[in-house]
Design goal:
Blueprint: H1 20-30, E1 39-41, H2 46-57, E2 62-66, H3 72-75, E3 83-88, H4 91-98, E4 105-109, E5 123-129, H5 139-142, E6 143-154, H6 162-165, H7 178-189, E7 196-206, H8 209-216, H9 222-243, E8 249-261
Parallel strand pairs: 2-3, 2-5, 3-4, 5-6
Antiparallel strand pairs: 1-7, 6-8, 7-8
Helix pairs in contact: 8-9
Protein name: SAM-dependent methyltransferase
Organism: Paenibacillus elgii
GO biological process, one term: methylation
Length: 262
């Protein structure tokens, strides 16, 4: 193991990524959920493919956006939907979304682990873009029969190269496919076991060494980012330059795309 690379989890201010506390801190720090690193995603770009499918599914519909973050993705559908509701657990994100003040867009705070705060058959369609998989336990109830539900979630193989290149800085990847198995289980429990799950894999290219550290420290306190930069940037730069291609440092970009009709 490369002892010159620190494990950022030992810092006393480290928060577990994607915990409620982590999201609340990100909301306070940024007011929005947007990645802090710079990169280029090669084709097929699962994020772009998902956006295309959402655009077709929400036309003239009453739509639910689950895990909407600060609402950037939600708001772009305002011109083509009847109405869209964004739901997220982080109050600061919801406040940012509500600043748009559009008549056919509503943002609400809610925890999907407690169920969705809507009536049965309230929506024509729903989507979940990197949001909580616990929503699949209840989303089939709130979407009308025949309505489409789309989901996009990080795959088990995402950025699998980083722990090998930057040991200690990145924790080892899990064996098997725990994310996919959890996704299948949640869909099954929510009566959506007939869903199609497609794995879309390409490459993401980090533009410069600092982007590796930005990714690792995303959502953490500025003190952690500064500490990791001071401890690791020289070695990260060395490893980056050894392994980089012309486009940047190549790592696996993987998403699970969920398609289901209620």
């Amino acid at each position: 193991m490369n002892e010159s690379l620190v494990d950022p989890r030992i810092h006393p201010e480290w928060l577990r990524p994607h915990s409620i506390e982590w999201y609340a801190q990100l909301g306070r720090l940024q007011g929005q959920y947007s990645f802090s690193w710079h990169s280029t995603i090669a084709e097929p770009n699962a994020e772009a493919l998902f956006a295309d499918e959402v655009s077709q599914a929400v036309q003239d519909k009453k739509v639910l956006d689950i895990g909407c973050g600060h609402g950037g993705f939600t708001l772009q559908w305002s011109p083509i939907v009847k109405h869209i509701t964004g739901l997220d657990i982080t109050n600061d994100f919801i406040q940012t979304g509500n600043e748009a003040n559009l008549s056919n867009v509503t943002f609400l705070t809610g925890n999907t682990k407690h169920g969705l705060p809507f009536e049965a058959d309230e929506f024509d369609a729903a989507y979940n873009r990197r949001g909580p998989t616990s929503s699949y336990l209840d989303v089939g109830r709130v979407v009308k029969k025949g309505g489409k539900i789309l989901g996009l979630h990080p795959g088990d193989g995402i950025a699998a190269e980083l722990p090998g290149w930057f040991p200690n800085l990145f924790e080892p990847t899990s064996t098997g496919a725990p994310v996919l198995e959890n996704l299948k289980q949640r869909l099954e429990q929510g009566g959506l076991g007939h869903a199609e799950i497609e794995t879309i894999r390409s490459m993401e290219y980090f533009h410069e060494p600092v982007d590796v550290i930005r990714m690792r420290c995303f959502g953490q306190a500025p003190s952690i980012h500064e500490w990791v930069m001071g401890q690791c940037l020289t070695e990260v730069t060395r490893i980056f330059e050894i392994n980089a291609a012309k486009e940047g440092l190549p790592v696996t970009f993987e998403r699970y795309l969920v398609r289901v009709t209620v």
